[in-house]
Design goal:
Strand order of the largest sheet: 3-6-2-7-10
Number of helices: 10
Largest sheet: 5 strands, parallel
Mean pLDDT: 92
Helix content: 40-55%
Number of strands: 10
Length: 301
């Protein structure tokens, strides 16, 4: 775990800490962009667990590659989900629980067709999946260009069944997550704790989801990550650490507000109190101090 003295952080020290953390992340991002700019590369598979910063990373990679003349087109693997009705019917037919997390939920035949079409630089129809309706709602036509790079983003992007559809020499696999926890004299936050705090704040701010619901779903989220994501991180070419040493300071006020609002009889009360006790030890940092393109903007706005 990373260790840092957070006691009596002046406003100047807070700003310096933010700059140091953001520069470290940007250095890793630039290294990834240099690797992605190689002549024979056509595809990037970007994956990572929930609240790892995939969306911001995809955008900033796109910006860095544009500087060297490579246009990046982002394709969400989520748009290749099979219709939920089809998955329900399969589960019922096979007498198994509905599984939206395994590779069996992905339309691999369509994904293979799209990859082949992009590689041949042919006009390609990209599907769109509506999660509220649980089905594919249409397609949009993509006209490829010879120098384009296609960034396939999503939790499933590094599943072996997915990456096997690409020409390995033309593919760069990137895994992003919070790499280290944070240790303090008053307690430590693991990488999973940091992502949980990110998700609590994000879900409340952007998805209208209460802390109780997020906590209730967390065990299932972690089980899926351990089964379907973590086993494949070692197969990736690059690892990007989106953890920011300053983030408990930025998360302190919004996270405490959510956590302290949970009822004392909550089944998660013990974990909630432990997180609250640790967060109270950090000095607060106003999110307005963060750069506009920070990964943390995904969670705090």
């Amino acid at each position: 775990m990373a260790s840092f003295s957070f006691a009596f952080l002046s406003e100047k020290a807070k700003k310096e800490l933010i700059v140091d953390c953001e520069e470290r992340f940007f250095t890793g991002l630039q290294a990834a962009a240099r690797e992605a700019a190689r002549e024979n590369l056509k595809f990037i598979a970007l994956s990572g667990p929930t609240c790892s910063g995939k969306t911001t990373t995809a955008k900033r990679l796109t910006e860095e590659l544009k500087k060297v003349g490579r246009e990046v087109v982002t394709v969400s693997v989520d748009d290749f989900f099979l219709n939920r009705s089809e998955l329900f019917a399969r589960a019922e037919r096979e007498g198994i629980p509905l599984d939206m997390d395994s590779v069996k939920a992905i339309d691999l035949a369509l994904l293979q067709e799209v990859i082949r079409s992009l590689l041949l630089c042919l006009p390609t129809e990209i599907p769109h999946f509506d999660f509220s309706e649980g089905k594919r709602t249409g397609f949009s036509l993509l006209t490829p260009h010879k120098e384009d790079i296609y960034l396939f983003e999503g939790i499933q992007a590094i599943y072996p069944e997915v990456t096997s559809l690409f020409d390995r020499e033309a593919l760069l696999k990137i895994f992003i997550s919070v790499g280290e926890g944070i240790e303090t004299p008053w307690g430590g936050l693991s990488p999973c704790d940091l992502r949980l705090l990110r998700r609590l704040v994000r879900d409340s701010k952007f998805r209208g989801t209460g802390a109780g619901v997020t906590f209730g779903n967390w065990a299932g989220v972690r089980a899926n990550e351990e089964e379907n994501i973590e086993p494949y991180r070692g197969s990736c070419d690059l690892f990007l650490d989106s953890g920011m040493l300053y983030e408990p300071c930025v998360m302190r006020e919004p996270a405490l507000s959510l956590l302290e609002g949970l009822p004392a009889e909550s089944p998660h009360a013990k974990k909630v109190e432990a997180l609250c006790e640790i967060l109270r030890g950090f000095p607060a940092i106003d999110p307005s101090l963060l750069p506009a393109d920070s990964v943390m903007r995904e969670f705090v706005g």
